[in-house]
Amino acid sequence: xxxxxxxxxxxxxxxxxxxxxxxxxxxxxxxxxxxxxxxxxxxxxxxxxxxxxxxxxxxxxxxxxxxxxxxxxxxxxxxxxxxxxxxxxxxxxxxxxxxxxxxxxxxxxxxxxxxxxxxxxxxxxxxxxxxxxxxxxxxxxxxxxxxxxxxxxxxxxxxxxxxxxxxxxxxxxxxxxxxxxxxxxxxxxxxxxxxxxxxxxxxxxxxxxxxxxxxxxxxxxxxxxxxxxxxxxxxxxxxxxxxxx
Length: 245
Prior knowledge:
The protein has 245 residues and is an all-alpha fold. The protein has helices at residues 3-12, 20-52, 61-68, 86-95, 107-116, 129-138, 145-161, 164-174, 184-192, 201-210, 224-236.
């Protein structure tokens, strides 16, 4: 072979392409794609659960936690029609006086309480009944801005897909009224030895005012401050708007 031909061949040799950076970039894109899909799936779970709980009796995260740790949880689901009207009225008077008016979040109350909150987040006073309901169903207990930030859109969503009546029905069936005691029926039987449909106004007020601290307040044997709070709720009950129920 001639020397000139050898030189020409050397000049026309195409250098090998480096593929490692492209392959690394491809793997990174796949990982990011899976992370995004996992995040979307995780975000969809609460939305799907709340949609389901519009037609089936819900189970709270606290109830699930007790069952998973082999601890008992008392709860007997009852329709709102089988709960004395005094109880939702007392809960509205005690927990969320604008329940029938707002769309899941009482913005004025939320701004005020957040402005007064400490480092551990807003207090219970910022929570509407829809916010407390979604917290009990798909979030975790405790106080933090992260959880409150999740409560707000979920409460708006739940209020949009459920009627007010269904919202109250779900809330009264998952609220914790003592260690392992969930829902109005179990609470009425435990503390007053009767069905929730037979609760008196005072018994309803005592149950409603136990909710801020259900593991410390005993509706059957209320402490002095608990009894005073119940009396205040009884005084407000006739003025509360429960017409949406």
